[in-house]
């Protein structure tokens, strides 16, 4: 933030744990006012992103925001596709896709009106490669990538930028719920031979949410320890 520039305001969904919490720490350190949305009662706004009416009400209550970090997400079922129940599949999409859509849709008009905005959405390497026994999660993150690519083009001349991040395995509480076999497989795909750290992802988010990121939109940034192949 440059001298004399007004403090930016950010909403971070899933901001009380994992990547969202790391992003909150980093953006606050960079001088950004952070407002967390989370199902946790410790959040600034206790919001379930699958409840579109609650999302709209919370965004209206917050007022003008410059930055949105879409970090709320769930792993979903750890099993072959043909063993997944329809309710499990729907719930994964309800959080990872429909919830992200609801929050993003709610903040865009204000950003466009003010002529500046940064939207950063958490996708995953799974959305590119497809992780075995994580088909619901992989499909939902592929949807985030597709949405971001379209949105970036729609907003390209507005001053509002939308990008996505595709991490490989990151050490977060969410991955603690992944079965050991699946976790071992997806970690073995990383040439660096280790999982990522949440603060490494937060550093990339901080740049994507800044004025320095000015000629990139509708893009997907891999942070994968070398796993990414395209």
Number of DSSP strands?
Answer: 7
Q: Summarize the main sheet.
A: 7 strands, parallel
Series of secondary-structure elements, N-terminal to C-terminal: EHEEHEHEHHEHHE
Q: Helicity range of the residues?
A: 40-55%
The low-pLDDT segments are: none
Q: Structural class per helix/strand content?
A: alpha/beta
Radius of gyration: 17 Å
Specify the overall morphology: globular
N- to C-terminal separation? 33 Å
**Count, helices:** 7
- Side by side, the strands of the main sheet go 3-2-1-4-5-6-7
Mean pLDDT: 94
Strand content: 15-25%
Topology of helices and strands:
Layout: E1 9-13, H1 18-29, E2 33-38, E3 45-46, H2 52-62, E4 67-70, H3 86-114, E5 117-122, H4 126-129, H5 135-154, E6 160-167, H6 180-188, H7 198-208, E7 220-223
Parallel strand pairs: 1-2, 1-4, 2-3, 4-5, 5-6, 6-7
Write up this protein.
With 230 residues, the chain is α/β, with parallel strands linked by helices. The chain is 42% helix and 15% strand. A 7-stranded parallel sheet has the order 3-2-1-4-5-6-7, sandwiched between helices. Helix 3 links the parallel strand 4 (67-70) and strand 5 (117-122). Helix 2 packs parallel to helix 3. The protein is globular. The two termini are 33 Å apart.
């Amino acid at each position: 933030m440059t001298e004399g520039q007004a403090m930016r305001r950010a909403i971070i969904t899933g901001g009380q744990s994992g990547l969202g919490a790391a992003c909150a720490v980093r953006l606050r350190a960079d001088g950004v006012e952070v407002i967390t949305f989370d199902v946790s009662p410790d959040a600034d706004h206790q919001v379930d992103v699958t409840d579109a009416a609650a999302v709209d009400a919370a965004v209206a209550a917050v007022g003008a925001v410059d930055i949105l970090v879409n970090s709320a997400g769930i792993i979903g079922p750890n099993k072959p596709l043909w063993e997944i129940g329809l309710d499990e599949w729907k719930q994964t999409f309800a959080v990872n896709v429909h919830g992200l859509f609801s929050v993003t849709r709610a903040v865009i008009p204000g950003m466009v009106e003010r002529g500046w905005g940064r939207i950063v959405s958490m996708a995953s390497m799974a959305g590119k490669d497809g992780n075995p026994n994580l088909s619901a999660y992989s499909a939902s993150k592929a949807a985030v990538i597709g949405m971001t690519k379209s949105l970036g083009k729609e907003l390209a001349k507005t001053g509002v930028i939308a990008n996505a991040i595709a991490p490989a395995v990151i050490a977060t509480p969410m991955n603690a719920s992944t079965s050991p076999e699946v976790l071992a497989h997806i970690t073995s795909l990383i040439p660096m031979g280790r999982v990522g750290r949440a603060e490494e992802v937060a550093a990339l988010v901080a740049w994507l949410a800044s004025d320095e990121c000015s000629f990139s939109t509708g893009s997907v940034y891999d942070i994968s320890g070398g796993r990414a192949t395209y």
